[in-house]
Amino acid sequence: MARLIIVAALLWLGWLFYRRLKRQRRPNPPTPASGEAMVRCAWCHVHLSRQEALEDPHVNDVSRHLPGEKHWFCCSDHRERYISNGPGPRRRSS
Fold this sequence. Notes:
Layout: H1 2-25, E1 38-40, E2 47-49, E3 54-55, E4 72-73, H2 76-85
Antiparallel strand pairs: 1-2, 3-4
């Protein structure tokens, strides 16, 4: 009976050790720094950090803009589409 308890305890300790090693190997997902400003792509509505976003160079030059309004984009393709076609299609609400 004592051998069974010792074997069970060793298996349990081995399992705990394995979980700790597994947790340490897993890389943490990148998270935005606390307080980092997030903006939304005017074309596809994806949120991204302001540092990664492209700003619309035609602020207040096009009638779609209100005074002081800025548009942000996730890539140059979406910026060009927005400038030539206006806002992208709206998502359907469920």
